[in-house]
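Sample pair:
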Amino acid sequence: MSVRELEDVLREVRRIQIVARRQVNDLLAGEYLSAFKGRGMEFDSVREYVPGDEIRSIDWNVTARSGAAYVKTFSEERELTVLLAVDVSASGVFGSQRLSKMETAVEVAAVLMLASVKNNDKVGLLFFADKVMRYIPPRKGRGSVLRLIRELLATEPVKAETNISNALDFIARVQRRRCVVFVMSDFLGPDCSKSLAIANQRHDCIAVTLSDPREAELPDVGFVTLRDAETDELLELDTRHPQVRALFAKAASDRDKTLSGWLRKAAVDRLDIRTDQPYARSLQRFFRMRERQR
C-alpha cells in the first residue's frame, strides 16, 4: 500500500469512527447490552441459607468451616466474544445508492465493534469469499477495534463465489468457546443452512443480510448489460418490457424466500441491512427484537 493509499484509509477510519460512535451513543446505547446474553452464569458470592433456597446451591466448604449453611449466588456473565465474518467476494462492490453493499457492511461492522468494545467484549474479524481469506482472533480494547476497521477498509474484493459454509466450518475449528457470530453477506451462494444450524448450536449466529434495491427491481431504461462480478458472466436485458422487469423481480423475490427458508431451518436470526435505508434503525429494531426474545 502506498503512502497516499494509507493516508486515504486512515482518513476513512477517522470518518467511520465518528459516524459509528455517534450511532452507538445516540441510538444504540444500552440496547446492545440487553440484546445478547453472556456465556452463562458466573460465581458472585455466598450468603446464609434461607428456607426455600435450592439445596444444590449450598456451598459445603463454607458451610463446614462456619458451622452454618451458606449458598452460592451467581450473576450473569456479561462479557462476550464477538466475531464478525465478512464476505469480501466481488458481489459486495455493487451499489446504486450512496454506499455499496461492502461499504455499508464496513459501517455496520464498525458500529457493532464499537458497541462491543463499550461493553468490554472481545472482538475478532474473519474475511471470506469461497474460502477463508484472513482471520484476526478476538481481542479487547478500542485500539484493537480501530485496527480491525483499518483492515476492513484496506481489504480488496475477491473475484470468487461466496461460500458461507467454508467460513462457518473454519469458525467451528478455531473458536471453541461460545461467541456471537455476525455473518455479513449478500448470501448469493450455495445452500448454507446445514452449516448455519451446526454453528448456531455452539454459538449465537446472526445473519446480516446485505442488499441493494437494484438487485430486486429493474428500472425502465432500455437495453442493459449485467455482469456478474464474481464469474464475469454477462446478461443482456431489454428493460422496456414489463414482463422482463416482472421476471427479474420474481427471481429476486424467490432468492429472498429461499434465504429466509435457510435461516428458518437453521433457527438463525436475521438482521436485514439495505443500502437504501438507514442501517442504524435496522440495528435498533433488531436489538429490541432480541431483547423481547430474551
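The chain has a mean pLDDT of 85.
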